């Protein structure tokens, strides 16, 4: 059994910066475990390659929810990254920190050190904003953040139309003003995806004190009493145990982290007993508080100059591919959405509770295949619910680590959530009907002119709505009885074990969750080093 000072479970958005931060000290022997394969694939590095990764069999966990009664008993597909970089290696690369009030509310829920003024230095430290540094932005960190290399005329017009219907313009969603409409930034550098792995681990992969293992699926965390001492792992078909002399940091993501805890005997006793798992530490909140950004996607047939569909469809996609191979420029170098808007569904909302995303292109998902760009010119607009009132659960399907957990998100089960989303659909239509966008629209295709009343909009959402794949909250931070970790991310009731990923969020941030997940990892590394747990005296055996 090999011993390390620190073992990090999951090389994703949070795990990678943790590995970087802990291994900065050459005296720390660090192990970073990843269940998936390496990320050295062409489509991982290519921004537009996310379309090829959505259903990828090797780089994606390919999860499904259980049937959802409120969504006409549909099952929903949930892709999650299963490779170095985690979901930051397959996502749309949008860089949104969240609203100041998101973090202040975390602090006010009993988590000192997590207010906006507390986390801002970490956001600044981690990023290399190509615009340069200012009061809110950093320019010397490892994570590259850039503007779209090509801004379509229709994207500019969407911003103008949004302003005409009362949405103010903002030049930087991550600066002084979060709410409003403007261009998105992405984690892209020189036309290539810049994942958490690319930014934080790849440059230091050759450190003698850092070991990165792929193809290693964690089976459970080993406990001696209430002390986390090691990790049991299935590596290349063989079970092995790695021993932690100092700490174990669980960063497997909002769907896998609660599962690993429960398989290790940490969780709701009744749930563990149901699967024949001995309860080592009663923690009733593990797997509860599952939150996600529900969204619906609209599609508009457009004038040819409004869309780059025709540049990526048919034979032209091969020409565009050759252009990208030679220059790393062109449409394949673009992130998912060019323009975003953060708006309130009601005047009395303290800040935006809806996110709107505009794409000067449209696509079709082929389940079991890939995401394919449509042949005819089109524009896509989506609306996301940022602060859902309904929460779901992650529970065990069995005691077998190879079985995925059971995911029940409970979308559209709260009347206020439903009302806000209906408002969002109407707001999209208002923007697209205002000039200059109205001149670019030939017809609304999805949901289509037949969907008019609130009841019809709700039915359409029930039939077609999806997850934005921004799950969080399942190992929440706090002080109440359902809090799984404290403000230092230490698992309550367990020594030498922390959770650090989006699962610790008491509630979701207002926007895409990759940036705050990376921040959590950067901050977690600092906390682990500050607390400086002494090395344990390692025995010859590890407890079951």
UniProtKB/TrEMBL annotation:
<keyword id="KW-0560">Oxidoreductase</keyword>
<dbReference type="GO" id="GO:0050660">
    <property type="term" value="F:flavin adenine dinucleotide binding"/>
</dbReference>
<dbReference type="InterPro" id="IPR012132">
    <property type="entry name" value="GMC_OxRdtase"/>
</dbReference>
<dbReference type="GO" id="GO:0008812">
    <property type="term" value="F:choline dehydrogenase activity"/>
</dbReference>
<dbReference type="Pfam" id="PF05199">
    <property type="entry name" value="GMC_oxred_C"/>
</dbReference>
<dbReference type="InterPro" id="IPR000172">
    <property type="entry name" value="GMC_OxRdtase_N"/>
</dbReference>
<comment type="similarity">
    <text>Belongs to the GMC oxidoreductase family.</text>
</comment>
<dbReference type="Pfam" id="PF00732">
    <property type="entry name" value="GMC_oxred_N"/>
</dbReference>
<keyword id="KW-0285">Flavoprotein</keyword>
<feature type="domain" description="Glucose-methanol-choline oxidoreductase N-terminal">
    <location>
        <begin position="81"/>
        <end position="104"/>
    </location>
</feature>
<dbReference type="InterPro" id="IPR036188">
    <property type="entry name" value="FAD/NAD-bd_sf"/>
</dbReference>
<feature type="binding site">
    <location>
        <position position="218"/>
    </location>
    <ligand>
        <name>FAD</name>
    </ligand>
</feature>
<protein>
    <submittedName>
        <fullName>Choline dehydrogenase</fullName>
        <ecNumber>1.1.99.1</ecNumber>
    </submittedName>
</protein>
<feature type="domain" description="Glucose-methanol-choline oxidoreductase N-terminal">
    <location>
        <begin position="253"/>
        <end position="267"/>
    </location>
</feature>
<dbReference type="InterPro" id="IPR007867">
    <property type="entry name" value="GMC_OxRtase_C"/>
</dbReference>
<keyword id="KW-0274">FAD</keyword>
